[in-house]
Amino acid sequence: MDNPPDFMAQWDYRDPAASALRFNTLLPEARTTDLQYELELLTQIARTHSLQRQFAEAHQLLDDIELRLTEATPRARLRVLLERGRTFNSAGDKASAKTQFEQAWQLGLKHKELYLAIDAAHMIAIAAPLEEQSRWNQLAMELAERSQDKQVRGWLATLYNNQGWTLFELGRFDEARISQQKCLTWHEQHNNQAKAFIARWSLARLSRAQGQHEQAHAELTQLKDDIAAAAAPEDGYVFEELGENALVLSDPAAAEYFARAWFLLSQDGWLRANGAERLARLKQLAKL
């Protein structure tokens, strides 16, 4: 197939079912012209199953793809390993996931598929124990930073953010700040305002972790004002952080911040399902 459509551009990770429909519209032509493209496309349909927690369906489709792999389809083989690993990881089997990702990392390096090799390394960091995560993030960042390929370098913001949070969890706050500042700089240079707002929130969270509550409050207040000026939706996490710092500073506005945070975050379906205690605490601190 000459200049086949970029199937990765069809992704909406928040709506895997709709993504699957778009992938399926590409299949008929792919089946008649390009085996590797077809198999890669099918791995993404498997991923839509995984994201919907349809793990048996994802594994079955990956099994079917695996039977059709050849020496001429190394990239499809690499994607099978990645999606198999993601399926295991989503199901909570991190050990099996890590094995798949490590194989994908080695295969990606062997075939110089650096974009997918970095994907594998960043997934190893997600599946690995905390003490191993920083090393894998670092390997992925170094590979991306050395590359002149725009697509490969496009991983950097994600990697800087992931490394920042790994270092945060390790209590290495100064190093975490360096990573999150790199993430912010990347998004500012690429005019991604929404992602830049998130990076600024991450830096303010680090300020709180380091006991710099007045600085964090100032950073968050400015961020809240900049979000409003950009006519972007209010962010409940910003109000939550404002509340946490105000609480330590004995600022009477703390309850108001928590109330706004609770109102916004209680509308988040994922948080309602996975963060009931967090929401209950916000409501209590808001004195609602």
TrEMBL record:
Checking InterPro entries in the record gives: TPR-like_helical_dom_sf, TPR_rpt
Top-level lineage group:
Bacteria
Task: Output this protein's name.
Answer: Tetratricopeptide repeat protein
Q: Which organism is it from?
A: Aeromonas popoffii
